[in-house]
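Key result, reporting period 2: structure in, sequence out.
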C-alpha cells in the first residue's frame, strides 16, 4: 500500500464551519468517485507534542496544521491510475481546494505497519 500524506491549514477568510461542510459534503465525496482511491483518513490536529515517548528526546517547535490527511491506494499503479482518472474526469474548479486549503506539504509515501503479535 502507498499513501499520499498532506498537511494543511485553512485559508484565511474561510471559517472552520464552512471548511468542514465543504470537506465532508463536497470534497471527500468528489474524491471518492475515483475508483482507485481506497480510503481517506482525516487527522484533525489537536495539539503539538514536545517530548518523544518517555521523554527520550525533545521535539522542536515546528509547523502547525489544521489537519494531516492520508489518501490510501493499493500500490503505485493504482496511484498513477488515480491521477489519470482525474485527468479524464476533472473536478470543477469551484469544488476543489483552491481558496480553501493552504497546503504545507503533500507527499507520496510507502507505509510499513508495526503491530503487536
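The corresponding designed sequence is given below.
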Amino acid at each position: 500500500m502507498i499513501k499520499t500524506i498532506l498537511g494543511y491549514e485553512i485559508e484565511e477568510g474561510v471559517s472552520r464551519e464552512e471548511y468542514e461542510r465543504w470537506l465532508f459534503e463536497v470534497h471527500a465525496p468528489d474524491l471518492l468517485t475515483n475508483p482507485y482511491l481506497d480510503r481517506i483518513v482525516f487527522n484533525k490536529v489537536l495539539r503539538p507534542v514536545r517530548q518523544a515517548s518517555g521523554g527520550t528526546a525533545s521535539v522542536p517547535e515546528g509547523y502547525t496544521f489544521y489537519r494531516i490527511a492520508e489518501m490510501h491506494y493499493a500500490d503505485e499503479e493504482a496511484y498513477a491510475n488515480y491521477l489519470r482518472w482525474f485527468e479524464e474526469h476533472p473536478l470543477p474548479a469551484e469544488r476543489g481546494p483552491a481558496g480553501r486549503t493552504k497546503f504545507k506539504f503533500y507527499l507520496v509515501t510507502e507505509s510499513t505497519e508495526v503491530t503487536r503479535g
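The mean pLDDT is 95. The first helix runs from residue 16 to 31. This case is discussed further under Risks and Mitigation.
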